Amino acid sequence: MSADVALSTRLGRAKRLRRLAEAATGWGLALPAAVLMLALILIPTASAALLALTDYQLGARRVSFIGAANFVEMWRDRVFWQAFANTLIYTALTVPLSVGLGLGAALLIEADPTGRTAFRTIYFLPVTALLVAMATVWEFILHPQLGLVNVALRQIGIAGPDWLASPDWVLASLGFIFVWQQTGYNMILFLAGLKGISPELYQAARVDGADRGVERFTMVTWPGLAATTLFVTVITTLYSFRVFDTVAALTQGGPSNASNVLLYNIYREGFVYLRTGYASAMTLVFLALILMVAMVQMRARRGHSA
Amino acid sequence: MASLEIDGVSKRYGDNLILDGVSVDVPDGAFLTLVGPSGCGKSTLLRILAGLELQDAGSLRIGGHEVSHLRPSRRDIAMVFQSYALYPHMTVAQNIAIPLILRRLPLWQRLPLMARLLPQARSTLARIDAEVQAAMEMLGLTSLAERRPVQLSGGQRQRVALGRALVRQPAVFLLDEPLSNLDAKLRVHMRSEIAQLHGRLGTTFVYVTHDQIEAMTMSTHVAVMMEGRLLQVATPSEIYADPADLRVAEFIGSPKINVLPARVGADGTLTGVGLPVSGSVAAAPGTAVQLGLRPEHLILRRGGGRGTVSAIEDTGPERFVSLVLDASDAPVVARVAPDHCAGLRVGDDVSLAVLPGKALVFDHAGARLGFDHPAMTPGEFDHVR
Amino acid sequence: MSGGHRLGRLARAVRLVVLTIGAAVMLAPFIWGLAASFKPAAEIWSGSLRLLPESFHGWENYTAAFNRAPLGRFLVNGVIVCGGILIFQLIFAIPCAYALSKHRFAGRTVIFGAVLIGLLIPIHVTAIPLYLGFARLGLLNTYAALIAPFAISVFGIFLFRQFFAAIPDDLIAAARVDGFSEWAIIWRVVVPASWPAITAFAIFSVTSHWNDLFWPFIVIQSTDLAPPALGVVYFRRDESGVDFGPMMAATVIVTAPLVVAFLLAQRRFIDGITLSGVKG
C-alpha cells in the first residue's frame, strides 16, 4: 500500500516535471521569436497608432496629444486625397490587367506543349529582375523623343506622349511597369492552380457532352481556378497598394502629384517634411486598406467553402 | 533482456478513459502481442511503455526496475514505428548507427571534425561501425548501406527500422503495427522474419497489431484488449480454444464464431438452440446464456429439417456453408471440407450437430461459464468423417 | 488545360503568335538595356531602332559604370544584408515554428495569433516607429538598421510551421527514443527533412530583400552602405540621365546576379518567389 502511494507521488512528480519541461522547451524555442515579433512588429504598430494621435515632428523636443486632429487635417489635405485616389486608380488599372494577363498566359502556355518551358521562363524573368534597375530601362524605352516606344509610334504616324512626364499618362505608365513585372508571377500561380485540376474532370466533361473548349473552360477550368483567382487577385492588390520603388526612382510623385501614391506620400510627409505624427496617421489609413482586402478575402473564402 | 511487468496502468485524455487498469506480466524473452480493434488503447499502452506518454496511474517494471519516471532514451527500450520513422536525410548505415552514436559519443565529440581527430572517438566510431555492419548483415541490408530511405522498398525500410532498434541491444523491443504499411505478400514474409529474429535474439518483444493472424502466428503471449481493458492474456492456442470472454472469442478466429442464444434447462442442459448440444452448464436453470460455436466445430448433414442453406463459399481448401436454423433464425456458418456434402445447394435442407466438448458457453454479459460434457460415445460420429 | 486534347493547327499558330508577342514585351527591357550598355552615347541618343551597336562601346561603358559608382560595394552590401537577414530569420523562425507545430504549451495560440497578425503588417506600417527606435539607439545608417527589422519573419514561421506539421510525429518520437535532445531534433532531424521548404524560403527572402528599396531609402544615407536597389537610385541621381551607356551597364550589373541565378535554378526560384502564393 505505501509502495503504491510512493509510486503514485513519484509518478505525479514525473508528470508535473514533464509537463513543466514541455512548457519550458516550448517557450524556450518560441520565446526569442515571440520577443522579436513583439519588438519589431506589434509594438511598432501600436506606436504608429499612438503617434498618429500626436503632433510629433521628427527631432522635436515637445510632443502633445492632439486627438484626431491629424485625421481631420488629412480629410482636408488635397495632396493626401490625390495620393489616396492615385493608389486606388493605380490598383484598379493594374490588378485586372495583371490577373487577366497572368491567367491568359497560363492557359495559353498549358494549352499545348510547344515552347512551354521557354515561355514560362521568359514570362517569369521580370519577377526576378531588380525593379528600380529595370524601371531605369523602361524610362529609357519610354523617353519622349528617343525612346523605343515613341520612335516606333512615330513611324506609324502617331505622336506618342511624354509617358512619364504627362499628368494624364504617368500613372498608366508606372502601372504598365507593374503589370510587366506582376504578370509572370500571377501566371505561375495560375499554372499551379491548373495543375491542381484533375484531368479526369475534363474527361468527365467531355463524356457529359462538353465538346467545345469554351464549355470545358466554363465547366471545369474556371470553377477549378476560383480559389486561385481569389488568392491571386488579393495578393496582386496588396502588391499594387505598395507601389513605391518606381515612383521614388522615376517620378518622385510628379508631375504635380499626378503619380503621388500613399506610400510615397507617407515617405515624404514623414521623412522629408519630418511630420512624423501626420505620416503615422496616413500609415493607419494604409493599414486599413490592407485589412479591408484581408477581410474581403476571408469572407469570400468562407462563402466559397460554404 | 528482461521481464516486463505492467501493473494497473490507466490513462485518460480529458473525459476519455483510454486505459483502465491494465496489468500484464511476461517473462524475459516473451513475445507479447497486444491485439484489439483500433481505438482499444493498445498503441497508447505501447507509447506509455516507451515513455513517449506518461500513465495517470500504475507502474511499469523492466527487468524488475521501475521505469515509469524515466525518459524514453533512458528506458533501455527500442521502438519500431508504424511509419518506420527513418531519418530521411541519412543513409541506411547512418540511420542504424545514430542511436549508438548518440549514446556513446559525448556531444563535443560528435562535432564534425572532432570525431576524426580524437583517437578515442575514432575507436568508438570503429566499434559502432562494426556493430552496424553486423546488424545490417543479420537483416540482409549490407548492399543497401549507402542508400537513403526514399530509395528503399517498404520491406527494406521495415528492415532498416528493425536494424536501428536491434543494434542497441535493448532490454525490450517495442513494435507498433510494423507490418500494416506492407502489402499482403510481404506482410506474410516479414511476419516470419520478425518471429525468427525474436528467436535468434531471445529479447522480450512487445508487438502491437490489429491483425489476429499476426498475433496468433508470432507470439508466445497474446493480450486481447478492448475499450481500454485487457480481456485475456494467454498463449495463442489458449486464446483460441479457451477464450475467457465472448468478445475475445468473437475477435479471434475467421470466420467469426457463431453465437446462438440459449437457455439453461432444468438439468443444466441447453435448450432453445435448435440443435442438440450435450453437456451441462454451471448456472441456475432458466438463465439466458450465449452459446459460441466455432465454424469448424459444426457437423453438417443433408436433410433432417433443422435449417436451410443460405450461401456457400468455396475457398479451395475448405468451404463455408451459411445456413439459417429453423429454431432460432440466427445465421450460422459451418466450415467443412470441400468435398463434404458435394452437390449441396442454396435452399437445401440440412441438419447440424456440434462436436462434443467444443461448445463454449458465455453468460449474458459475455463472461465464460463452465460447461461439462459427457464423454464421447465411440462410434457416435463415425458417419461424419 | 484541355486534358490531353490537342489543339487544331490554326489554334496552335494563334497561340504561338500571341505568346511570342507577349514574350517580346517581357524581354524588351532586358534586351534593349543590354544592347544600350554596349552603345556609345551618340548612338543611344540617335533615336534609331537598331538593336546591335554600330560601334562597340561596351568596355568603356562598363569601366565608366564601375568608376562612377561603387557597384561592387552595392553588390557586397546586398550580400551582407540579405545573408544577415536570412541567417537571423532561420535562427529565430525555425525553433519557433517547431515549437508551434510539435509542442503543446500554454501560450502557443497566443504566439500563433501574433504570427497571423504579423502576416498582415508590412514594413511600411512599422517604418516610422522603427526609424525612431533606431535613431534613438544611434543605429541609423548602419548594417544593423538594414538587417534588424527583418530578423524575424512571421511568414517564415507560418511556412515552416505548416511544413513541420507534415513531418510525422513518429519521426520525432523515434528521435526522442534514440536519445536526441529537442535542440538536436530541430537541427539534425527537422531541418534536414525540410530542405525544400528552407531553400524555397531562402530564395524568397533573398530576392525580396535584394529588391527592397523602401526601407534602405529611409535609413541609409551613405553610398557605402547602399544595397543594390538603393545603389541604383544613387547612381541615377548622380548621373542625371545624360550618359546613358554607363547607366545601362550599371543596371545590367546589379540585375544580373538574381537573373542569372534564376536561369540556373529555375524550378527552385519559381518555388521560392511564389512562396507567398502558398495558400494559408
TrEMBL record, chain A:
Keyword Electron transport found: no
InterPro entries with a match to the protein in the record: ABC_transporter_permease, MetI-like, MetI-like_sf
Localization (cell): Cell membrane
Limits of the ABC transmembrane type-1 domain: 84-297
GO biological process terms on file: transmembrane transport
Superkingdom of the organism of origin: Bacteria
Keyword Thylakoid: no
Positions in coiled-coil regions: none
Topological relation to the membrane, as annotated: Multi-pass membrane protein
UniProt keyword annotations, A-Z: Cell membrane, Membrane, Transmembrane, Transmembrane helix, Transport
Name the record gives this protein: Sugar ABC transporter permease
UniProtKB/TrEMBL annotation, chain B:
Organism for this UniProt entry: Aquibium carbonis
ABC transporter domain mapped to chain residues: 4-252
Assigned keywords, A-Z: ATP-binding, Nucleotide-binding, Transport
One Pfam entry name: OB_MalK
Superkingdom per UniProt: Bacteria
Record's subcellular location: Cell inner membrane
Molecular function GO labels: ABC-type transporter activity; ATP binding; ATP hydrolysis activity
Full protein name: ABC transporter ATP-binding protein
UniProtKB/TrEMBL annotation, chain C:
GO cellular component terms attached to this protein's record: plasma membrane
Cross-referenced SUPFAM superfamilies: MetI-like
Ranges of residues in domain ABC transmembrane type-1: 75-265
Membrane-related topology note: Multi-pass membrane protein
Keyword Methyltransferase: no
Main location, first listed in the record: membrane
Source taxon at top rank: Bacteria
Annotated keywords: Cell membrane, Membrane, Transmembrane, Transmembrane helix, Transport
Residue ranges of the TM segments: 12-35, 74-98, 110-131, 143-164, 185-207, 247-265
PROSITE patterns documented for this protein: ABC_TM1 (PS50928)
Family: Belongs to the binding-protein-dependent transport system permease family.
Protein name per UniProt: Carbohydrate ABC transporter permease
Naturally occurring in which organism (per UniProt): Aquibium carbonis
